[in-house]
Structure formats: C-alpha cells, structure tokens
Specification:
The structure holds 2 protein chains of 2 kinds. Chain A is mainly alpha-helical. Chain A has a domain of 224 residues. Chain A contains 13 helices and 4 strands. Chain A has a two-stranded antiparallel sheet. In chain A, strands 3-4 form a two-stranded antiparallel sheet. Chain A is globular and about 75 Å long. Chain A starts with a helix and ends with a helix. By secondary structure, chain B is mainly α. Chain B is 76% helix and 3% strand. Chain B has 12 helices and 2 strands, in the order H-H-H-H-E-E-H-H-H-H-H-H-H-H. In chain B, strands 1-2 form a two-stranded antiparallel sheet. The two termini of chain B are 37 Å apart. Classes of the chains: A mainly alpha, B mainly alpha. Chains A and B meet through helix 5, helix 10 and helix 12 of A and helix 4, helix 9 and helix 11 of B.
Chain lengths: 340, 288
C-alpha cells in the first residue's frame, strides 16, 4: 500500500510539474496571467482550508493578511527598489499581524463564532482604512497609498538581489504555481507532524485536548500565524499579477475564499484548491455575460451549498465512491476467507 | 462653550445611530443566537424602501417609520421560513447562509437599481447655535432611538409575548412542553429583528443616502456593538453604543473620522479581551 501511495505521489508531482512547464507554451498570455491569479488565490484558499478545516478556527480575516502582504510588498518594493527585501518584509508584516491578532483572540478565549465575526470586522476596518488613504498626506516613504485606487504601479518581482532583471508574466506563473505546490506539500507535511495532530485534536474537541495537558491557545496561535503567513505570501503573488488596492480587503474577496473552501469541502485540502480554480473560471465566464451580477451568483451558490450539500464536493464524491466500491471490496474479502 | 454643545450633539447622534443599527441585530443575534451577516443588507433594504417610496410621492416620515420596518419585516419573515429555520443551532452554517444571502441581496439590488448612490434631502433643516449649525434631524434620530429602545425593553419585559420569547431563547424544549409552538416564536422574533433593522435603514437613508453595498459599513459596527454589549438585548446595546459611540466621536474630533473608527475597533477588541461575555455578561447581570 505504501508503495502504491508513493507511486501515486510521484505521478501527481510529475503531472503538476508538466502542467506548470507546458502551460505557458500552449495558451495565450492573458490566460497565463489569469492562471497566475488563480494560483495565488489558491494559496489563500489553502491557508483558510488549513486554519478552518483542520484547526477549527473560523478565520474570516485571511484576506486581511492577504491585503497586508500585498501592501507591504508594494510599499517596500517602491522604497527599496529591489523586491528581495520587500518580499521578506511582506511575509513578516502579515505574520506579525496574525500573531498579534491571534494573541488577543485566543488569550481572550474568543469562541468560534465570535472569532469569525471579529476577524471579519478587522478585515472590514482595514478595507475602510486603506480606502481612506487618498491624497498626498498618506504615504509611506516614497510610496503613496492612493486610497481607493491603491498602488497601480506595483513593482514586479526581480531576481534576488538583481534589481535590473524583472520577471516576465510567464516567470511569475512559474513562481506562483511552484509556490502553490510547495504550500500544498507544506500543509500536508505540517498535518503529519505533532503540531498538525494537535490542531486536528483541537478541531475535534478543544476541551479534551486541554484536559490532556496541551495549551490550545498556543496551538491555535501557531496555526493562525502560519495561515497568516501563507495568506501574506499569496498577497505578494497577487500584487505581482494585478496590483494592490483596497479591493484585496473587500468583502467579496473574503466571501469568495470561504465559498471555495465550503464548496470544495471543509476538512480537505485538494477540494478547496479545485473549487478555487473552477469557480474563478465560472465567475470569469459569468462576468463576460454582463447582465448577471457575480455577487448574486456567488450568494445563491453559497446558500444552496449550505442548505443542500453542507459537506462540499470532495467529501460527497468520496462518500459516493465508497458507496460504490465498498460492497465490491467486501465481497472480495468474504470470498478470500477460507470456508468453514 | 459652543464647541462643547456641538461635540455633545455629535456624540449623542453617534450613540443614537449605533443603537438604531444594532438593535435589530441585538434581537436576532444577541437573543436568538442567529449570526445574521445579512444584517447590513436588511438596513440597506430599509433605505431603498424609503428612497423608492419617497420618489413615488409618499411622505418621508411615513416611509421611514412605517413602510421600511414593514417591508423589511416581511422580507425577514420570508428569509426565516425559507433559509434560517433549517439552520437553528448550526451557527457556522447560519453564518455562511446569511452571508450568501447578503451577497445575493447586494447583487440583486445592484442589478435593479444600479451601483450608484441615491438619496433624499435631509428634512427638518438646521438650527443655528452660536457659530455652528445643528441639524434638527439629529434630534429626530435620538428621539427614534430612545422610543425604539424603550418600546423593545417594555415589550420584552412586560408583554406575554416578550416573556415567552425570552423563555424560548433560553430553553425552547421546556417552553415547547408548556404548549408553546416555538417555531412560531422564532419566526416572529426574527421578523421583529428584521423590522427593527428596516427602521434603522429608513432613518439613516436621508442622512447618508443609499448604495447597494452600504450594508458593509453597518454590519461590522453592529456586530461589534452587540458582541461588546453581551447577551442582554436592550441593556447591552445601550451600554455598548454609549461607550463605543463616545469613543468613536471623541477620537474623530481629536484626529480624523478614520481614526475614530479604528479606535472603535480597538476599543471593542480590548473590551472583548477584558470581558469575553460582553458588558452585560460581566456588569449588569439579569437585565433585559
């Protein structure tokens, strides 16, 4: 069985690598840029899938870290003129912010639903704050924050310590897609460690975990901070394929990520990523229709899934698969048994 | 001296509008424990009811004090029957479904009315006070906030329905075994909460105008207020609105409106850190 698993893993890695390398050669530039945006959003989705699906923290504030990462990257890159320290700083800012916010939330024993509301509120306040930064008075160093318009001239990444060589859109696709695969592998690895097991234990029963001598506050803070760092990284990528603006903090983005996780299946990793790609393609198609509001469609999809298929696509498919295969497997094992 | 009166007027107005936008949520979320993320859109719907009916020639006061609560109350009843009633006790699912509802409402209103701000002029004019002008509408806002709060308090405290409703929220099974149809109580309570949100939207519409996405501005403030207030609907809303409204307006006067809102958030986060059960969970126990 382990041999079969490692073969499957190797095949998955090969398929992913092939897709990443071949895609820029077969599709137009426009599609590549879109695919890069989807990949960056998929990392954001993955961060919520980890924090919410495996540690039970309903963080609706992932877009806060996403936006902070983007803004920190843009501001630092404009000031330094080199993206290498900017990326480091842009990972640090959302991570620290997540740590601080998490401290207040978890040490304040804010329980699940209140947590969702508070993280959501923080995101909305940041949205308003960055929207209000129009005018010359609001700038950090050389970077004007630009209010509602954001920073349209967000600098692109360059090779490390080589500010002359800026990455092309194709290169950013390679970076984003590779990072998505790495993030997925990282989360899979994290969940196999002791910390990961403790996260799942907290999701299942926080009280019992605490009675066994673990401090759930610390474990939740660790998960929340890791999720914040991942969301920040996705914000950097997003800043490199679109540009930073207060929209990154907006309710629509927050909602989208939650919708993808729910539809893909809470408690799975591949499901949300799959849903992220699929639904963004659908939304893009709907946007081309022009008469149907994407908000409206997303809202209806969300209501429908909560009422009709609350566990999401992937777990539902798994259950169907089990239902079909289990009787066959059972028959086989019965046949193998020696006759008495 | 003049400035002091102006600041006082601003603080009281801010408290009154916080009370109005939170009181509907205090019923739906504070009492019923239904996380209604479409709360801001209920307010938005109230606002659009007023704008549409005033443009059709209806009296502004009739529109905002009667029509807006009626329309939004009816809509709330519909929502309770079709979505929320399947999700009682499943807080996260409720949250997601009402979020879906909120997105769908924003989308639907955008498709119908377009993504533009529309408004009516603020009635009642203004009153000169020394070197400053005070808008008389602010006093109407305060009046409506006081009357609404008093009415809700009296209704919950003294009417049979209020007592049954509070009992149902505490222990629905027990009340059910005493012969009360708790499903009806839930539906009516949700409708009342929605109607109060509609009233808030109706009163706010002449001040700020209406926009399909205006709910976003209110939903966060309302939740923060209700969470800070704790489980007692009326006392919690009153105390938290007073505290946060004063903080917001005070900071706004000293710095800018943006920092006012930020101070509101930080104040609320610190408050929840110090009193996780909210103000009425720690201080005024046993109040309504």
């Amino acid at each position: 069985m382990t041999f079969r698993n490692s073969v499957v893993t190797a095949l998955c890695v090969a398929a992913a690598a092939a897709t990443i390398i071949i895609l820029p050669h077969v599709v137009e530039l426009f599609t590549i840029i879109n695919a890069t945006i989807y990949a960056s959003m998929a990392i954001l989705t993955l961060s919520l899938a980890l924090v919410w699906g495996f540690c039970g923290i309903i963080s609706f504030g992932q877009t806060a870290f996403f936006g902070l990462g983007g803004y920190a990257y843009a501001v630092a890159a404009i000031n330094f003129g080199d993206s290498t320290p900017a990326i480091a700083l842009a990972l640090l800012v959302p991570t620290l912010f997540a740590g601080l916010l998490g401290y207040f939330i978890f040490w304040g024993r804010v329980t699940d639903v209140y947590l969702g509301v508070i993280t959501l509120t923080v995101t909305l306040i940041l949205y308003k704050l960055f929207n209000a930064t129009a005018g010359d008075a609001y700038h950090i160093g050389k970077a004007a924050l630009g209010g509602f318009n954001g920073i349209p001239a967000t600098p692109l990444m360059n090779l490390p310590w080589d500010r002359g060589t800026t990455l092309e859109p194709e290169d950013i696709w390679y970076v984003a897609a590779t990072l998505l695969c790495l993030a997925y592998a990282f989360v899979r690895w994290l969940l196999s460690t002791k910390l990961g097991h403790l996260m799942i234990a907290i999701r299942e029963n926080e009280h019992r975990t605490e009675l066994l001598g673990y401090d759930p506050r610390r474990i939740k803070l660790a998960a929340f901070t890791i999720g914040g760092a991942m969301a920040g990284a996705s914000g950097i990528l997003f800043a490199n394929c679109v540009f930073v603006s207060p929209t990154m903090f907006s309710l629509l983005y927050t909602a989208q990520v939650i919708v993808w996780v729910i539809i893909g299946g809470l408690g799975t990793l591949a499901g949300p990523i799959f849903a992220c790609f699929l639904l963004q393609m659908i939304t893009a198609e709907l946007g081309r229709l022009n008469w149907l509001n994407p908000n409206f469609v997303l809202g209806i999809i969300l209501i429908a899934f909560v009422l009709l298929m609350p566990s999401g696509i992937l777990p539902t498919l798994q259950r169907m698969y089990d239902k079909i295969t289990w009787p066959i497997l059972l028959q086989k094992s019965v046949r193998k048994r020696p006759a008495q | 001296m003049d400035l002091a009166v102006i600041v006082l007027d601003q603080i009281l107005t801010s408290i009154a509008s916080l009370i109005l936008i939170s009181i509907g949520l205090a019923v739906i979320f504070g009492m019923m424990r239904v996380i209604n993320l479409a709360h801001g859109e209920f307010i938005m719907l109230g606002g659009y009811t007023v704008i549409t009916s005033v443009n059709a020639g209806v009296n502004l006061w009739f529109a905002s004090l009667v029509l807006a609560p009626l329309v939004v109350g009816a809509f709330g009843f519909l929502v309770e029957r079709t979505i929320v009633r399947f999700l009682y006790g499943r807080m996260i699912d409720t949250m997601l479904a009402t979020w879906g509802l909120s997105l769908a409402m924003v989308g639907a209103v955008t498709m119908i009315f377009g993504n533009t701000t529309s408004g009516v002029s603020t009635p009642l004019g203004s009153m000169a006070f020394g070197r400053y002008e005070l808008s008389n509408y602010n006093f109407a806002l305060m009046g409506v906030a006081i009357v609404t709060t008093a009415a809700l308090w009296a209704a919950l405290r003294f009417t049979p329905f209020g007592i049954i409703a509070r009992a149902t929220m505490q222990n629905a099974q027990m009340v059910g075994s005493l012969g009360v149809n708790s499903a009806h109580v839930y539906a009516i309570t949700f409708t009342i909460g929605a109607a109060l949100s509609g009233l808030a939207g109706g009163m706010i519409a002449p001040l700020s105008g209406v926009l399909p996405s205006m709910g976003v501005q209110y939903v966060a403030k309302a939740f923060i207020t209700v969470i800070s207030g704790g489980s007692a609907a009326v006392a919690g809303t009153l105390s938290a609105s007073t505290l946060l409204g004063t903080l917001d307006t005070g900071t706004t006067f000293l710095t800018t409106p943006v920092f006012g809102e930020v101070s509101l958030l930080i104040g609320a986060v610190l408050l929840v850190r110090a009193m996780p059960q909210g103000i009425t969970g720690s201080l005024f126990k046993g109040s309504t």
